[in-house]
Amino acid sequence: MTDSFDTSHTHPAADAKPQRGIQSLDSTGELLAALVAAARPLNLRDLAAAAGMPPAKAFPHLVSLLKIGLLNRDASGCFEAGPLALELGLIGLQRLSPTREAEPEVVELAASTGMSVAMAVLGPLGPTVVRLEESARPLHVSLRVGTVMSLANTAIGRVFAAYVADDVRAGLLVQDHLRLAGADAAEVFAGKPVPAGKGKAAGGTDTASALPPLTQAYAQRLAQIRADGIDTALSRPVPGIDTLAAPVLDHTGSICLVLALMGPSGSFDSELAGGPAQTLRAATSRLSRRFGWMA
Questions:
Q1: Which of 134, 228, 251, 287 is the most buried (most CB within 10 A)?
Q2: Helix (H), strand (E) counts: the chain
Q3: Strand partners, 242
Q4: Which residue numbers delimit the IclR-ED domain (predicted)?
């Protein structure tokens, strides 16, 4: 007798049919989804309302979720994530690979915008392009997988510079002249940096922490990037090529990668409020949320 759960010889059409679940658990899921969307503890009345059900219907589901540890109640009686939910979340985050998870977004961005899309991570040498999806009309630029971008003169690099820790940024800027379109120290530092190779400055502090402050213009640009959640580079560093770049953040708010749209100047709306910028921000927001970032 064939096992009733053996699906190896099931017709493909049967696989497409929606599987039958437990209807009561669908309601339970709606309560969990409502709590996630709220991003804060909710009392019974508010949580039930957010899930679109009466409190009397919601309460038994919430009791069961409390018993198994998916939910907890704080001192004021509001419902919040429980220990089991936290453990499941941590397991999920540990298994996520930012570059792997971003791959479908890169392909979709290129297809929906008709533009080239680059993905960069912060490597040992600085912001490094690790994926390049060319548009139907490839750009003739010196950007390839493995290219290390300037933190001062490229949109991709500035986005990283806006979100990394101060000491990390300072250490990278000292060697920015070695990168694509790199800047000299005088362009980003309001003073003379400690000479390379000194190791430690007076008083035993690290060289990075002994570096002078950033120039006002550069510091303001980074602050604006953090406020907008996106940066643009118009015909720089490559004349005739415009770039939009936005960060993907993890559950701690740390930057894990940058996605960028690139196209010929004048061929697309490069304004931060334009369609391509909104599409890019929507993609990076989806990824950030997947990695646990709650804006």
A1: 287
A2: 12, 7
A3: 234, 263
A4: 84-293
